């Protein structure tokens, strides 16, 4: 009897302990935990984590994807630049391109003064990251400045700017007046050796006909500029022949593409006498009263007519005579 009781007690005790153990285990499994999401049932937590993972993957994908060019409603600025082969050419083009890279919606029309496109310029443009058109036209020998001629004797870059105009008209007619490439677009003639502030391009971007502004370090002056009274250009501040129709440097104006297309014969006269090249183009397009003064009513200098010194090659030539010149296969 005693033995029976004992056995029964042991069984009951065993049963109770097992039951408590089981209930405890079940509570641990399906119940609560003391992690951060301790209120969520497990599968809800897992699906939440899945969602989080997907979101992070999407974000990562976006960050890694190559940036698609942004669509822009800004008017295009076509920058026409004459350029010619010389020791400093690649340096000039590099300086220019790296300025232009900061200007939204800019299309560079680079016109080589050469019989054929050169590989230096072709490769340079391809690697530049800019939107561009590569043109070339050789200045006829009789129109070209010869070694030793004073720099003012003949206009430089006239044929190339005209070639740029020819391309713009061809493109403009093909694209149509209402196309984004043409509507509200602006044309600017930027020599390859000048210095351009980024602000200049925003000043010219909304040109209606012809906009104008000061140019620094030009014409033997600190600056030249149109003089503005009552919001209109009334004369020009220049040290030489203010009576010229437009005594403005090439760097001091921009023209709407619409105006260029509406005047198919307007061009630069390569035969124009010194100082009249800009006038030869502008006088058929606009009057002084119609000019649109920019750069705070022509009170700010945002472009400089800088000129690059010709590098001296005395040591190079001396070494070349000994067959020790710099490797010609290295592009400079
Ligand atoms: N240029 C050219 N062919 C030449 C000389 C000049 O295409 O034989 C280009 C030059 O690269 C520059 C522009 O014409 O973009 C004006 O030339 P430059 O800067 O020598 O003129 P300057 O500053 O003396 O007016
Ligand atoms: Mn120059």
UniProtKB/TrEMBL annotation:
Pathway the protein acts in: Protein modification; protein glycosylation
Keywords of the record: Disulfide bond, Glycoprotein, Golgi apparatus, Manganese, Membrane, Metal-binding, Signal-anchor, Transferase, Transmembrane, Transmembrane helix
Membrane topology recorded in Swiss-Prot or TrEMBL: Single-pass type II membrane protein
Active site feature: 278
EC number(s) reported in the record: 2.4.1.135
Keyword Kinase recorded: no
Subcellular location: Endomembrane system; Golgi apparatus membrane
Site positions (Interaction with galactose moiety of substrate glycoprotein): 224
Pfam family, one: Glyco_transf_43
Annotated TM spans: 7-27
One term of GO molecular function: galactosylgalactosylxylosylprotein 3-beta-glucuronosyltransferase activity
Domain of life, per lineage: Eukaryota
Region annotation Disordered: where it falls in the sequence: 312-332
Cofactor: Mn(2+)
Binding site for Mn(2+): 193
Record-level GO cellular component terms: Golgi membrane
Catalytic activity reported: 3-O-(beta-D-galactosyl-(1->3)-beta-D-galactosyl-(1->4)-beta-D-xylosyl)-L-seryl-[protein] + UDP-alpha-D-glucuronate = 3-O-(beta-D-GlcA-(1->3)-beta-D-Gal-(1->3)-beta-D-Gal-(1->4)-beta-D-Xyl)-L-seryl-[protein] + UDP + H(+)
Family of this protein: Belongs to the glycosyltransferase 43 family.
Protein name: Galactosylgalactosylxylosylprotein 3-beta-glucuronosyltransferase
Lineage: Eukaryota, Metazoa, Chordata, Craniata, Vertebrata
